[in-house]
Specification:
homodimer; mainly alpha; Arc Repressor Mutant, subunit A; Tetracycline Repressor, domain 2; flat
């Protein structure tokens, strides 16, 4: 009997298996990936240096789906367009988000987005320190919104403990994704007008 | 030989074990909890109805640590104080966040926070539909910021692919938690001034 052919491995194949594992279970391990790919754990290390590098490959894979070039219009339109793209890409794999935020950003391709945001804020007149905080603010809002987009159709169940103000608010709620989309649009308007108000020229 | 004493179980003990499991691995399973607690899976079902109820117990446990009563001052000060409390509580267990957002909010105690936010926005003059979106906007920003607070000391590694605007921004960055705290303060100022700008009286 011929030996079974050696299973083909590549960083891309390992990254896809890791994304699948996180989508299903919330995390991945090297032995778990080896089992999923039906290879020995040691074989993985011929292609990746370990867990941290796989996280960066996963980040690069998601970031590669974000169009950072089609920027036209004002700095604030650019920021809103980037945020919208970024949210869409991350909402497909919400369980990756805590892994990404737990690791230092090293993927070169990830800087495509952050470079574009930094350029937009700098063009808008923000100082470097404000630019860093503005990027973090947009980042936090987008990651939270990506989780919200992946939320169940009914995000809050009403009950006797709900007060009148919250009851009235819930009565206006459509189902996801319409509710999440409308909230994201509202939130981006809030963020942009709040950011504009931080600029010296706004006073 | 006497039989070993029956292991004591309660919803609280099961909830703590589930939080430990998510902190360590990103998720929990009923068989995994049974193994962690050295009981048979069937014993768990004498105390909890299943996975969804455990998620609500975990949410209730974290929400119980949030002080929603000490509200004084304007609606915007109340919102900022609630957001700050909420972020602090969630940052201790960042990997719970995607589990929470993936399940409908049912825990009565969780509505303490949402009721307080709804009351603040209603007091501020927001219509019910805007109140719902404003709550979601604050929620998304806070959850993203809790993940950011749990980020590594160095969130971005600089490299040749970093453009000048991002390089200047990174040069101003302190380490966590100072960087994350400063970004959260900046973001809350942005959100509040952006929310104020949505009110009809602002125009």
């Amino acid at each position: 009997m011929p030996r079974p052919p050696q299973r083909l491995l590549s960083p891309e194949i390992i990254t896809e298996a890791a994304i699948e594992s996180v989508d299903e279970t919330g995390d991945f391990t090297m032995p778990g990936l080896a089992g999923r790919l039906k290879v020995r754990p040691s074989s993985l290390y011929n292609h990746v240096s370990g867990r941290a590098e796989i996280v960066e490959f996963m980040r690069a894979r998601l970031m590669a789906g974000i169009d950072v070039t089609s920027q036209s219009g004002s700095w604030s339109e650019t920021v809103a367009a980037l945020a919208s793209e970024y949210r869409r890409s991350y909402a497909e794999h919400p369980r990756l988000i805590p892994l990404f935020t737990a690791h230092t950003v090293q993927a070169g391709v990830a800087f495509g987005l952050y470079n574009a945001l930094a350029q937009a804020f700098s063009d808008g007149g923000f100082e470097p320190g404000e630019t860093l905080h503005a990027i973090t603010t947009v980042d936090s809002f987008v990651l939270g919104s990506a989780l919200d987009l992946a939320a169940p159709e009914v995000q809050w169940s009403s009950g006797p403990e709900v007060n009148n103000a919250m009851k009235a608010a819930l009565a206006t709620s459509g189902k996801n994704p319409e509710r999440a989309d409308a909230a994201f649009e509202f939130g981006m308007r809030v963020l942009i007008s709040g950011l504009v108000a931080q600029l010296p020229t706004a006073h």
